[in-house]
């Protein structure tokens, strides 16, 4: 057979070459910087929307709503938040909560007791507090992403009708900073006292007193014109809370506040505490 008559055949392609490319979630490629930018943008838009709503500018509210949706809305914000809490991006904040609670959850009589926890702004049913056998977790979020998370606004949750409906701990992990209005932030903190029981679970140490787990971006406390660590302590102290544990990382501040039951909130206005051009305007107003 001459070269001119020789027939050349292609080797059959591998089956893997004929498959469509694996579809990956859009958020998988989000870098840490893109995640931060998405979260910050969402917060700025929420704040602008609140201001427009307060002034009665319906046209601007509609415009901002459209922009929020173009950015992916609350769902995209939650995706970014979940990435921020992944093991590669800072981790699950409830791991620290579980560590701090470990000694408190030791029963005095060897029996097993449940410590009722209300997790506000829950993103997962598989985080550290959910996997702890000593915790009975009630999870709520504005936009539930899992069957085990109730779609509910904490500010609209019915007040407990009995002590059995109250909780031994409330987790506000990166929740208070999501609230766009400084007055509502104050109301949220005050509302926590209504949901906390005034006594520890039966069979546990008295040190297992009710408590509030609070996580905020460090910039909200250390780089704000209107909030300092001292002011935050004054606000929570007036509501019956005593600081038990605290930890600061480069990006976040973690605090565990014991609740004494002696709540007598006093007013805190928005006032300049830490002036500076590069500071932010995060504030908590208590009326």
Can you walk through the features of this model?
This protein is globular. About 30% of the residues are buried. The chain contains nine helices and seven strands, in the order αααααβαβββαβααββ. The chain has helices spanning about 15-20, 30-55, 60-70, 75-85, 95-100, 130, 180-195, 220, 230-240; strands at about 115-120, 135-140, 150, 170-175, 210-215, 240-250, 250-260. It is an alpha/beta fold. Helix content is about 30%, strand content about 15%. It folds into two domains: about 30-85; about 95-260, Rossmann fold. The N and C termini lie far apart (about 95 Å). A hairpin with a 3-residue loop joins strand 6 (about 240-250) and strand 7 (about 250-260).
Largest sheet: 7 strands, mixed
Strand content: 5-15%
For this structure, the CATH topology of the largest domain is: Rossmann fold
CATH superfamily of the largest domain: Vaccinia Virus protein VP39
Q: Taking strands numbered 1, 2, ... along the chain, how are they ordered across the largest sheet?
A: 3-2-1-4-5-7-6
Distance between the termini: 97 Å
Count of separate structural domains: 2
Helix content: 25-40%
- The CATH class designation of the largest domain is Alpha Beta
Unreliable spans are 4-10, 12-28, 86-90
- Overall geometry comes to globular
Helix/strand order? HHHHHEHEEEHEHHEE
Rounded to an integer, what's the Rg over CA atoms?
Answer: 24 Å
DSSP, total strands: 7
Number of helices: 9
- Class by helix and strand content? alpha/beta
CATH architecture of the largest domain: 3-Layer(aba) Sandwich
| Average pLDDT number | 80
Oligomer: single chain
